[in-house]
Structure formats: C-alpha cells, structure tokens
Amino acid sequence: MIRILGSEVIVIKCASCPPVVGTEGTVVLESMRMLTIVSPNSGKRMIPKRGTALLLKNTNELVIADEMKGRLEERLAKGAEL
Fold first, then answer.
1. According to the model, what pLDDT value does residue 40 have?
2. Is the per-residue pLDDT at 81 higher than 70?
3. Of the candidates 3, 1, 8, 5, which has an alpha carbon nearest to the alpha carbon of residue 60?
4. 72 neighbors 30 (Cβ within 8 angstroms)
5. Model pTM score
C-alpha cells in the first residue's frame, strides 16, 4: 500500500485543475476526494484525486490518485493495495 501522507510530491497531471500542475510540496491531508499539499512557495493547495498523477520526489514513483478511492482509514481497514 502506498502511503503518501508526509511525502514530498510533484503534481504532474491534474485534469480538472490544470493550473496546479507543477505544484511541489508535502502531502499533509487526504480525504475521500481531495489531497492537501503544503509548499513554501504556493502555500496550501487542495488537489482533487480524480484525474491527478503525482510523482514521489524521494523514490521517483508515479502515483495515480484515481486509484486511491475512498478514505485512507477505510482502505487501511480493508487492507486494500491503494
């Protein structure tokens, strides 16, 4: 299971909100449909999961946020992969 809370990320695709592409920062909150990223440059940004792809800076791993359906705590309880 990929846990992105606390990870440094770069938004490389966001179909519903193209201006956030290129945003870099730390994932500080995950809700059912949104991710909250905080960065020194752009402050706090709410990023929709739908249509979004992130690059984990420390591992260069691609994360498709669409696959992170539902709330984090529900996925953890089910033992789902994402």
1. 86
2. no
3. 8
4. yes
5. 0.82
Q: Per-residue pLDDT for 11 more than 90?
A: yes
Residue at 72: amino acid letter? L
Structural domains of the chain, with CATH: 8-69 (2.30.30.210)
How much is the average pLDDT of 54-79? 84
Q: CB under 8 Å, gap of 24 or more: what pairs does 38-47 form? A: 45/20, 47/11, 47/14, 47/17, 47/20, 47/23
**Other CB atoms within 10 Å distance of the CB of residue 76:** 11
Angle 77-6-19 from CA coordinates, rounded to 5°:
105
Distances (CA, A) of 50 to 14, 41, 58, 77: 8, 24, 23, 22
Strand partners, 46: 36
